[in-house]
C-alpha cells in the first residue's frame, strides 16, 4: 500500500507547486510502521514533534472522571496530529493506532519554516485543522441532542467522508475498521446499543453489513435523517495567499 501524505491531501484543494511539495516531503522523510494498539502519545505528555499519518487509522481520546473513554477524533492518511502542542506544549488527548499504520514525525520548527517560506501551505494546514474541528464539533454536539440511531448513522457517513478525503477507495460500501465498542466511545453509546442501532438501520433498509463492510443502501434517506453535512464540500479558499 502506498503512502498518502499531507501533499496528497492538500493537493486535492489546490495544485501544489514543486517547491511546496518539496517542503512537505521534508516533513515525511522518516516514516515508521506501527502496530494496532500502540499508544503514540499519552494525554498530558510533552513533545517537540508533530506527526502526519501516511497509512492506516488512528484515534484520539480522553479519559473521563468515571474512567470511561471519549473518542474525540479519528485520523486517516494525510491527517496531522499533535498540532495542539504548538500552543500548549502538552497533548490534550491520548493517540493510539486503530489499525496497523505508518506515521512520520517531524520537529515543530518545520511549521515555523512553512509559515515564513510557504504561507499558502501554512494556510492550507489551517484549513485542514478547522475542517477537523468542525467535524468533531458536529459529532460531539450530536451526543446531547440526537437519538442513538441518528448518532450511528452520522458516524458511518462521517467516517466514509474522511476516508474519501484520505484517498481511500470507498463508494457505496466501506469498512469502518472499528469495533462496536470504539464506535460507542465516539458517540456516547455502549457496544450493545451500537449493535442494536446497526440492526435497526438494517431492518429499515438503510444499510447492510457483510464481511465487515457496511453498504449504504439508501444514502439519500440516511443523509436526510441524520442531518449529515459534508464538511469537506463547499470550501471557501479564495482568501489563500499566492504560492511562493
Number of helices: 9
What's the domain count? 2
Give the end-to-end Cα distance, rounded to a whole number of Å. 32 Å
CATH architecture label of the largest domain: Sandwich
What sequence of helices (H) and strands (E) makes up the elements? HHEEEEEEHEEHHHEHHEEH
pLDDT averaged residue by residue: 94
Beta-strand proportion: 15-25%
* SSE-based structural type: alpha+beta
Q: Assign a percent range to the helix content.
A: 25-40%
Placed side by side, the strands forming the largest sheet appear as: 1-8-3-6
Radius of gyration: 18 Å
Largest sheet: 4 strands, antiparallel
The CATH topology of the largest domain is Jelly Rolls
| Assembly of the depicted chains | single chain
Return the CATH class of the largest domain: Mainly Beta
The coarse silhouette is globular
Summarize the structure.
By secondary structure, the protein is an alpha+beta fold.
Please, could you describe this protein's structure?
- With 244 residues, the chain is α+β, with helices and mostly antiparallel strands.
- It has 9 helices and 11 strands.
- It folds into 2 domains: 6-139, Jelly Rolls, CATH 2.60.120; 146-226, Winged helix-like DNA-binding domain superfamily/Winged helix DNA-binding domain (Arc Repressor Mutant, subunit A).
- Helix 6 packs across helix 8.
- The model has no long low-confidence stretch (mean pLDDT 94).
What does the secondary structure layout of this molecule look like, with pairings?
Layout: H1 6-10, H2 18-25, E1 31-34, E2 39-41, E3 49-55, E4 58-63, E5 69-75, E6 80-81, H3 85-88, E7 94-97, E8 101-107, H4 109-117, H5 119-142, H6 148-165, E9 173-174, H7 180-187, H8 191-203, E10 207-210, E11 213-216, H9 219-226
Antiparallel strand pairs: 1-8, 2-7, 3-6, 3-8, 4-5, 4-7, 9-11, 10-11
Helix pairs in contact: 4-5, 6-7, 6-8, 6-9, 7-8
Amino acid at each position: 500500500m502506498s503512502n498518502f501524505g499531507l501533499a496528497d491531501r492538500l493537493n486535492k484543494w489546490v495544485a501544489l507547486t514543486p517547491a511546496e511539495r518539496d517542503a512537505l516531503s521534508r516533513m515525511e522523510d522518516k516514516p515508521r510502521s506501527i502496530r494496532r494498539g500502540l499508544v503514540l502519545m499519552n494525554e498530558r505528555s510533552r513533545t517537540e514533534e508533530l506527526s502526519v499519518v501516511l497509512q492506516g487509522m488512528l484515534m484520539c481520546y480522553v479519559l473521563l472522571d468515571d474512567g470511561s473513554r471519549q473518542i474525540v477524533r479519528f485520523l486517516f492518511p494525510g491527517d496531522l496530529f499533535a498540532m495542539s502542542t504548538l500552543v500548549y506544549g502538552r497533548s490534550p488527548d491520548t493517540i493510539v493506532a486503530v489499525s496497523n499504520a505508518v506515521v512520520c514525525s517531524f520537529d515543530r520548527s518545520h511549521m515555523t519554516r512553512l509559515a515564513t517560506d510557504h504561507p499558502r501551505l501554512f494556510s492550507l494546514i489551517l484549513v485542514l485543522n478547522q475542517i477537523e474541528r468542525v467535524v468533531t464539533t458536529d459529532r460531539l454536539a450530536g451526543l446531547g441532542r440526537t437519538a442513538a440511531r441518528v448518532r450511528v448513522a452520522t458516524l458511518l457517513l462521517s467516517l466514509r467522508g474522511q476516508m474519501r478525503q484520505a484517498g481511500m477507495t470507498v463508494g457505496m460500501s466501506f469498512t469502518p475498521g472499528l469495533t462496536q465498542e470504539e464506535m460507542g466511545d465516539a458517540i456516547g453509546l455502549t457496544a450493545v446499543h451500537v449493535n442494536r442501532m446497526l440492526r435497526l438501520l438494517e431492518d429499515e433498509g438503510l444499510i447492510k453489513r457483510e464481511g465487515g463492510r457496511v453498504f449504504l443502501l439508501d444514502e439519500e434517506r440516511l443523509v436526510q435523517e441524520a442531518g449529515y453535512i459534508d464538511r469537506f464540500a463547499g470550501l471557501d479558499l479564495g482568501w489563500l495567499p499566492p504560492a511562493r
